[in-house]
């Protein structure tokens, strides 16, 4: 088996928030989501179905939303299985998946979410499943929640298009460019919308879109993106040019190997985690009960993603090394008691440093 370019073990994760919470209906959610997938024939054959289920999208959904309305969590889970199928197509490395194709599909997808009757996507299982998702989403979400969800989807698709464009040029972006645009592909607001929906929380727009909460949300998205770049590194290490991720961007900048770039990535990630916990604590001081729940949910998003990724065969037994995913594959992860970089000030990266203003103000 080809060894990982990152070394034999992943680094320890500094994550000083509550961990290992899972929605009590997780097993039911997973069974119903898989039944839904099969009813639409989303996967063309047993092999693709195995890899689709290896995303463990139900586990992801039930870890970042460990409490709340089960029907909302189910719909979110079904969205995640569907979105991961799109993500696999975007990351396939196929000649047909260039920037133009990713942008074209993304625009059509967004317009379908906004107006499910526009008939912009080709007939097939993916489109039929999408129309079902959109119809049910419109029935459940308020207009503001639907707008938040659409904007989160736009983030995901813009980030994916930007990464595709960088891969097409064959050049690695500068660090500041990457940290400003790369994490968009996570779709942080795509996920957090459903977290609020499941709890029934509806923060006022002035609170939800305040500079401080926006910075906190972006910081959480960066930490999750950095962690994903570690967990998913082996899955994409066969691609040429190299995958656009935090490790490879730093390796290019410092002219070092991916393994040597890992401590640099972790240090940057940990500084943002310190900012996240500091700013979250400050916002919690004067928060009402609804905002407090939202702040707690941001922690569930960060910690839940680590728990999910460490157990997902999609990452622990990647397709470029295995014909089929290994059901019991997982990473042996460790948690750090302290950040690897203890500096409290902002890093010399403008796209990140702006968040520290919310702590100083």
Could you give the topology of this structure?
Elements: E1 13-14, H1 26-40, H2 46-53, H3 57-64, H4 70-90, H5 99-114, H6 125-140, H7 143-169, H8 175-181, H9 188-199, H10 205-208, H11 211-231, H12 246-254, H13 258-285, H14 289-311, H15 313-316, E2 335-336, H16 350-353, H17 357-360
Parallel strand pairs: 1-2
Helix pairs in contact: 1-3, 1-4, 3-4, 3-14, 4-6, 4-9, 5-7, 7-9, 9-14, 11-13, 11-14, 12-13
In brief, what are we looking at here?
This protein has helices spanning 26-40, 46-53, 57-64, 70-90, 99-114, 125-140, 143-169, 175-181, 188-199, 205-208, 211-231, 246-254, 258-285, 289-311, 313-316, 350-353, 357-360, and strands at residues 13-14, 335-336. It has 361 residues and is mainly alpha-helical. Strands 1-2 form a two-stranded parallel sheet.
Description:
This protein is mainly α and 361 residues long. It is built from 17 helices and two strands. The chain has helices at residues 26-40, 46-53, 57-64, 70-90, 99-114, 125-140, 143-169, 175-181, 188-199, 205-208, 211-231, 246-254, 258-285, 289-311, 313-316, 350-353, 357-360, and strands at 13-14, 335-336. Strands 1-2 form a two-stranded parallel sheet.
